[in-house]
Design goal:
Elements (H helix, E strand, L loop, with lengths): L1 E7 L5 H17 L3 E10 L9 E9 L2 E9 L2 H25 L13 H4 L1
Helix pairs in contact: 1-2
């Protein structure tokens, strides 16, 4: 998995980088077919003090790109909410992949109904 972390009006410190990598381990534990990951962290200079810290992620899996964004007062809280939302999307994507595999009708076992007719 390729991981790119970038910041806008923010220096990405090793502590932030390690925090994001630790949180992404939970995602790769659920779904290990992740190709590429781009994390974008930003601080907006808004007049109101709430939700100034923003975190976005683009997670590329085979055939799809999952995009999640979150905002909070604290950058670590924004990353936590981001990973929770991403985890739900990854689990949903994984269940959709598993639900599409089905047994063909002609391969189903015969219950004897055809023999009685």
């Amino acid at each position: 998995m390729n991981l790119t972390i970038s910041g806008h009006h923010l220096e990405v410190t090793p502590a932030i980088r390690e925090y994001v990598q630790n949180k992404l381990e939970r995602i790769t534990r659920h779904f290990d077919h992740v190709i590429d990951t781009h994390v974008f962290l930003a601080i907006d200079n808004l007049t109101e003090k709430e939700k100034r810290q923003k975190a976005e992620i683009n997670l590329q899996v085979s055939g799809k790109i999952l995009h999640v964004a979150s905002a909070a007062q604290d950058l670590y809280a924004a990353i936590d909410t981001l990973m929770d939302r991403l985890d739900r999307q990854v689990l949903k994507h994984k269940s959709m992949l598993q639900d599409h595999s089905h047994v063909a009708h002609k391969r189903l076992p015969d219950n004897g109904e055809a023999a009685a007719a």
